[in-house]
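Session log. Operator J.P. requested a structure for one protein chain; no other inputs attached. Running the standard single-chain path with C-alpha coordinate output.
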Amino acid sequence: MARERMTLAELFRRHGVDPETLPPASPSPPDSEVRKRITQAPLQPCAACGEDSSHVLVRDFGDGSRWVDLCWEHGWATVEPAPGMPTTLEGILADVREVAAELGLDLHPIAQRSSRRWPTGRGSAVDSPERFHLTHSAGGRPVAPGWWSDEAVARAKFVLWVGQYGSIPGTRITLVDEVEARTLAVWPDPE
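Structure written below.
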Protein backbone atom coordinates (compact mmCIF):
# COMPACT_ATOMS: atom_id res chain seq x y z
CA MET A 1 0.00 0.00 0.00
CA ALA A 2 1.42 3.37 -1.01
CA ARG A 3 1.82 5.93 1.73
CA GLU A 4 -0.42 8.94 1.28
CA ARG A 5 1.54 12.17 0.89
CA MET A 6 0.28 15.42 2.34
CA THR A 7 1.46 18.85 3.39
CA LEU A 8 1.81 19.85 7.03
CA ALA A 9 -1.23 22.11 6.55
CA GLU A 10 -3.29 19.13 5.33
CA LEU A 11 -2.06 16.97 8.21
CA PHE A 12 -2.93 19.65 10.76
CA ARG A 13 -6.35 20.22 9.19
CA ARG A 14 -7.16 16.49 9.28
CA HIS A 15 -6.13 16.16 12.91
CA GLY A 16 -7.42 19.51 14.17
CA VAL A 17 -3.97 20.81 15.10
CA ASP A 18 -3.64 24.55 15.71
CA PRO A 19 0.00 25.47 14.91
CA GLU A 20 -0.16 28.23 17.55
CA THR A 21 -0.38 25.52 20.23
CA LEU A 22 2.96 23.97 19.18
CA PRO A 23 5.96 24.73 21.41
CA PRO A 24 7.97 27.81 20.39
CA ALA A 25 11.42 27.25 18.91
CA SER A 26 14.33 29.47 17.95
CA PRO A 27 14.33 30.18 14.18
CA SER A 28 17.45 28.09 13.46
CA PRO A 29 18.19 25.89 16.48
CA PRO A 30 21.67 24.35 16.61
CA ASP A 31 21.96 20.66 15.72
CA SER A 32 22.67 19.82 19.35
CA GLU A 33 19.28 21.26 20.38
CA VAL A 34 17.48 19.30 17.64
CA ARG A 35 19.29 16.06 18.64
CA LYS A 36 18.41 16.65 22.28
CA ARG A 37 14.73 17.15 21.42
CA ILE A 38 14.49 13.99 19.28
CA THR A 39 16.33 11.78 21.79
CA GLN A 40 15.24 13.06 25.20
CA ALA A 41 13.15 10.73 27.32
CA PRO A 42 10.26 10.65 27.30
CA LEU A 43 9.96 11.20 23.55
CA GLN A 44 7.91 14.16 22.38
CA PRO A 45 4.38 13.27 21.26
CA CYS A 46 3.47 13.52 17.58
CA ALA A 47 1.60 16.78 16.97
CA ALA A 48 -1.01 14.89 14.95
CA CYS A 49 -1.65 11.62 16.78
CA GLY A 50 0.22 11.73 20.11
CA GLU A 51 2.45 8.69 19.39
CA ASP A 52 6.18 8.93 20.15
CA SER A 53 7.91 11.25 17.70
CA SER A 54 10.76 10.25 15.41
CA HIS A 55 10.87 13.41 13.26
CA VAL A 56 11.38 16.98 14.39
CA LEU A 57 11.01 20.13 12.32
CA VAL A 58 11.08 23.83 13.00
CA ARG A 59 8.52 25.82 11.01
CA ASP A 60 7.20 29.38 11.12
CA PHE A 61 3.42 29.46 10.67
CA GLY A 62 3.25 33.26 10.81
CA ASP A 63 3.57 33.76 14.56
CA GLY A 64 7.20 32.72 15.05
CA SER A 65 9.09 29.44 14.82
CA ARG A 66 7.51 26.34 16.33
CA TRP A 67 8.68 22.79 17.01
CA VAL A 68 6.79 20.23 14.93
CA ASP A 69 7.24 16.75 16.39
CA LEU A 70 5.91 13.92 14.22
CA CYS A 71 5.72 10.14 14.51
CA TRP A 72 7.32 7.94 11.86
CA GLU A 73 4.15 7.64 9.76
CA HIS A 74 3.21 11.33 9.83
CA GLY A 75 6.82 12.42 9.36
CA TRP A 76 7.22 10.40 6.19
CA ALA A 77 3.76 11.34 4.92
CA THR A 78 4.76 15.02 5.00
CA VAL A 79 8.29 14.74 3.58
CA GLU A 80 8.53 17.00 0.59
CA PRO A 81 10.67 15.60 -2.23
CA ALA A 82 13.41 17.85 -3.55
CA PRO A 83 12.33 19.80 -6.64
CA GLY A 84 12.77 17.71 -9.77
CA MET A 85 13.15 14.44 -7.86
CA PRO A 86 10.95 11.55 -8.96
CA THR A 87 8.36 10.49 -6.42
CA THR A 88 7.31 7.14 -7.89
CA LEU A 89 9.23 3.91 -8.31
CA GLU A 90 8.77 4.19 -12.07
CA GLY A 91 10.24 7.70 -12.03
CA ILE A 92 13.20 6.62 -9.93
CA LEU A 93 13.90 3.68 -12.25
CA ALA A 94 13.65 5.94 -15.31
CA ASP A 95 16.27 8.25 -13.77
CA VAL A 96 18.56 5.30 -12.96
CA ARG A 97 18.22 3.98 -16.53
CA GLU A 98 19.04 7.43 -17.94
CA VAL A 99 22.20 7.75 -15.83
CA ALA A 100 23.24 4.19 -16.69
CA ALA A 101 22.79 4.93 -20.41
CA GLU A 102 24.91 8.09 -20.08
CA LEU A 103 27.63 5.97 -18.48
CA GLY A 104 27.34 3.29 -21.15
CA LEU A 105 26.12 0.69 -18.67
CA ASP A 106 23.63 -2.07 -19.38
CA LEU A 107 21.09 -2.66 -16.64
CA HIS A 108 19.57 -6.09 -16.22
CA PRO A 109 16.80 -6.84 -13.73
CA ILE A 110 17.55 -9.53 -11.19
CA ALA A 111 15.10 -11.73 -9.34
CA GLN A 112 14.72 -11.59 -5.59
CA ARG A 113 17.06 -13.93 -3.78
CA SER A 114 15.63 -17.33 -3.20
CA SER A 115 16.08 -19.08 0.09
CA ARG A 116 19.23 -21.17 -0.27
CA ARG A 117 20.71 -23.82 1.96
CA TRP A 118 24.37 -24.66 1.94
CA PRO A 119 26.45 -27.52 3.32
CA THR A 120 28.17 -26.60 6.56
CA GLY A 121 31.57 -28.19 5.82
CA ARG A 122 34.84 -26.26 5.93
CA GLY A 123 35.06 -23.54 3.27
CA SER A 124 31.31 -23.61 2.75
CA ALA A 125 28.76 -20.84 2.88
CA VAL A 126 29.08 -20.65 6.66
CA ASP A 127 31.38 -17.71 5.88
CA SER A 128 29.11 -16.43 3.10
CA PRO A 129 27.98 -12.82 3.26
CA GLU A 130 24.48 -14.18 2.73
CA ARG A 131 24.21 -16.49 5.71
CA PHE A 132 22.07 -14.36 8.06
CA HIS A 133 18.96 -13.02 6.35
CA LEU A 134 16.98 -10.19 7.94
CA THR A 135 13.59 -9.24 6.51
CA HIS A 136 11.21 -6.41 7.30
CA SER A 137 7.64 -6.74 6.09
CA ALA A 138 4.62 -4.55 6.73
CA GLY A 139 1.07 -5.68 6.11
CA GLY A 140 2.37 -9.00 4.79
CA ARG A 141 4.42 -7.34 2.03
CA PRO A 142 8.24 -7.27 1.97
CA VAL A 143 9.73 -3.86 2.69
CA ALA A 144 13.47 -4.41 3.11
CA PRO A 145 15.90 -7.34 3.12
CA GLY A 146 19.39 -7.50 4.60
CA TRP A 147 22.13 -10.13 4.44
CA TRP A 148 25.16 -10.49 6.75
CA SER A 149 27.91 -13.05 7.27
CA ASP A 150 28.37 -12.31 10.98
CA GLU A 151 25.64 -13.37 13.42
CA ALA A 152 26.46 -10.65 15.97
CA VAL A 153 26.15 -7.96 13.29
CA ALA A 154 22.88 -9.47 12.02
CA ARG A 155 21.44 -9.57 15.56
CA ALA A 156 22.48 -5.94 16.14
CA LYS A 157 20.77 -4.98 12.86
CA PHE A 158 17.65 -6.88 14.03
CA VAL A 159 17.52 -4.76 17.21
CA LEU A 160 18.14 -1.58 15.20
CA TRP A 161 15.35 -2.43 12.73
CA VAL A 162 12.91 -3.16 15.58
CA GLY A 163 13.71 0.28 16.98
CA GLN A 164 13.38 2.00 13.62
CA TYR A 165 10.38 0.18 12.14
CA GLY A 166 8.68 -1.54 15.07
CA SER A 167 6.04 1.16 15.48
CA ILE A 168 4.73 0.73 11.94
CA PRO A 169 1.38 -1.09 12.05
CA GLY A 170 1.62 -4.65 10.70
CA THR A 171 5.43 -4.74 10.86
CA ARG A 172 7.18 -8.10 11.15
CA ILE A 173 10.96 -8.40 11.37
CA THR A 174 12.59 -11.82 11.04
CA LEU A 175 16.20 -13.00 11.32
CA VAL A 176 17.01 -16.38 9.75
CA ASP A 177 20.22 -18.42 9.64
CA GLU A 178 20.05 -19.67 6.05
CA VAL A 179 22.84 -22.22 6.55
CA GLU A 180 21.08 -23.98 9.42
CA ALA A 181 17.61 -23.17 8.04
CA ARG A 182 16.35 -21.87 11.38
CA THR A 183 14.70 -18.69 12.57
CA LEU A 184 16.83 -16.84 15.13
CA ALA A 185 14.51 -13.95 16.03
CA VAL A 186 11.06 -12.60 15.19
CA TRP A 187 9.44 -9.30 16.10
CA PRO A 188 6.83 -8.97 17.35
CA ASP A 189 7.36 -12.13 19.37
CA PRO A 190 4.66 -14.62 18.23
CA GLU A 191 4.23 -15.91 21.80
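Operator note: Residues 30 and 65 are 14 Å apart (CA to CA).
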